[in-house]
Known about the structure:
With 398 residues, this protein is an alpha+beta fold. It is built from nine helices and 17 strands. Strands 1, 3, 4, 5, 6, 7, 8, 9, 10, 11, 14, 15, 16 and 17 form a 14-stranded mixed beta sheet that branches. Strands 2-12-13 form a three-stranded antiparallel beta sheet, covered by helices on one side. About 2% of the residues have low confidence.
Amino acid sequence: xxxxxxxxxxxxxxxxxxxxxxxxxxxxxxxxxxxxxxxxxxxxxxxxxxxxxxxxxxxxxxxxxxxxxxxxxxxxxxxxxxxxxxxxxxxxxxxxxxxxxxxxxxxxxxxxxxxxxxxxxxxxxxxxxxxxxxxxxxxxxxxxxxxxxxxxxxxxxxxxxxxxxxxxxxxxxxxxxxxxxxxxxxxxxxxxxxxxxxxxxxxxxxxxxxxxxxxxxxxxxxxxxxxxxxxxxxxxxxxxxxxxxxxxxxxxxxxxxxxxxxxxxxxxxxxxxxxxxxxxxxxxxxxxxxxxxxxxxxxxxxxxxxxxxxxxxxxxxxxxxxxxxxxxxxxxxxxxxxxxxxxxxxxxxxxxxxxxxxxxxxxxxxxxxxxxxxxxxxxxxxxxxxxxxxxxxxxxxx
Length: 398
Ligand SMILES: CCCCCCCCCCCCCC(=O)CSCCNC(=O)CCNC(=O)[C@H](O)C(C)(C)COP(=O)(O)OP(=O)(O)OC[C@H]1O[C@@H](n2cnc3c(N)ncnc32)[C@H](O)[C@@H]1OP(=O)(O)O
Ligand SMILES: CN(C)Cc1n[nH]c2ccc(-c3ccc(F)cc3OCCn3ccnc3)cc12
């Protein structure tokens, strides 16, 4: 069969199919894990931005500026990722975007926009945030790339490669040479391909909007009963995470991540920033053992609604996404069921999870159903000897 050509990606330091009959390049010599290209001297990095089509200009989007954030929000809510049937489109909120783009050590000039010179309208966007990511036993400072978006009216003009080269250039100027990203599309070359799963919390709404369908021989009332959850959690000591829990949660996470081949390397400041609860952005809970007062377990989910495209009764699908969860005493199944109970109490319609980490151990039993697509994980300028199984992945990108 004809192999799909990637005229841009074949020029990039990513895993390639060298000859196009599909067998892996690299021939006989042993593939080792590690950078594909060596770092360049900073004086060799292109100093000026890449050329944009005339009538367009680069801008740096200041995420502390309310007006700019509104423009970013509006571009994304109208032009960002849709599901395969174009029924839903991610609706990242302004608070969520500010949280996602502002982690400790962030670089303002990695929040890159493209504006039309005349109207000054924001027509494209791409972001990077720095993160320490461990691959096997190596901790590498990488750029996590996200929110690549070109306005629907400017698609298929090869603008995306320019955006990618520009963010790469700015990352290089900070002496960082690796990147990490995920996408629903297949590109050269995934380090892992994961499946997403959905757990209905409000089955009636999900069926009304066409997100899910009534199972054969099931009535609506039977379906509502099937997904019903108690209105309080069952684990003794289960409570909202507080600042005083940060050190304990960091220790739990570092221990938990050590089993995965690729995982974030989080320190207290990261945990405090990423995992302390923020209303409508991220919810996190600990199990504080009532006797020992030891923090033995942790679970979290983030808030990412989707616009329901063209439905007259509902405009928004309120979705919770499983984030990081560590169970050392409480069974993971019970901990995640408590997370579902909290999500239902907070009026989410659906709870989503990838089959990464140990998630496969609870998905079916907690009545998750498989989603209709995949999420592919990628590293830039870093080769892994072999692709990973989802269970070997400990990294969640927003
Ligand atoms: C050292 C640090 C390194 C940092 C950098 C690391 C790398 C970071 C990489 C970025 C990671 C982002 C992660 C992220 O944000 C999470 S994935 C979400 C991406 N965004 C969306 O899906 C929003 C809706 N779609 C759009 O806005 C456009 O369709 C986009 C902008 C996606 C493509 O615009 P377009 O008008 O439809 O297309 P052209 O401009 O004509 O360009 C076509 C070329 O773009 C390649 N393409 C398409 N989708 C891609 C995707 N999701 N990643 C990478 N490449 C993607 C495609 O394969 C082709 O190249 P090829 O000919 O070689 O096949
Ligand atoms: C990760 N981050 C980079 C955003 C992103 N980009 N591309 C994607 C493709 C799938 C998922 C995803 C990840 C986990 C999950 F449980 C469900 C998902 O998508 C459902 C299908 N869908 C797509 C859009 N609206 C609904 C996220 C993303």
